[in-house]
Amino acid sequence: MSKLIITDHPLIQHKITLMRKTDTSSMQFRQLATEVATLMGYEVTRTLQTREIEVETPMEKTTGVEISGKKVVLVPILRAGLGMVDGFSQLMPGARVGHIGLYRDPETLKPVEYYCKMPGELKNRQVILLDPMLATGGSLTDAATLLKERGADHIQAVCLIGAPEGVEAFQKAHPDIDLYLGHLDRQLNDHGYILPGLGDAGDRLFGTK
Ligand code: URA
């Protein structure tokens, strides 16, 4: 079973609380999303492989550590996932960024990609899938499925806020993917919005309605 990791650091809780407030402006909301993503990124990257290397300080030779293993690719789900890219990029400026946009066909209920641009060879990469709101779990689940179809076999999923319904659906569909949340909220409403939540993350990030 995949792990559910709630990154409940005091700074994350404080900043998510500010994001929830109706009177937080888009500018502040974007900045806070970046800050929370950076703080969460610290936890998400804890499992990156390292190896020992020899380095020479001005004083003597010593042994240091460098990140080794799979190269990281950040994959925001369009469009709200874009709000988490800068935060992760600050920690890993060299990370590639793939983009995925999808919707569910109302008749077949199958995920349809309307945009997908990935760096080559997902198989040899550590994929960090970004979507701020895990509501029903549909988009995150579908995006992970599409990435696996393109060869990804090491995926972590990161959301700022999740609903229990979405967590359950995602973990059932992808028991091999660890899921990181900044906060686990109470429930979904009848329209699929998270309660207490923060409203529509895409609209709040980009100042649209
Ligand atoms: N997407 C959002 O942006 N907010 C929600 O509450 C649910 C889905």
Automatic annotation (TrEMBL):
Q: Identify the metabolic or biological route this protein is part of.
A: Pyrimidine metabolism; UMP biosynthesis via salvage pathway; UMP from uracil: step 1/1
The beginning of the lineage is: Bacteria, Bacillati, Bacillota, Tissierellia, Tissierellales
Record-level Gene Ontology MF annotations: GTP binding; magnesium ion binding; uracil phosphoribosyltransferase activity
Protein's name in the database: Uracil phosphoribosyltransferase
Which family, according to UniProt?
Answer: Belongs to the UPRTase family.
Residues annotated as binding uracil: I194, G199, D200, A201
- Corresponding gene? upp
Known cofactor(s):
Mg(2+)
Q: What does this protein do?
A: Catalyzes the conversion of uracil and 5-phospho-alpha-D-ribose 1-diphosphate (PRPP) to UMP and diphosphate.
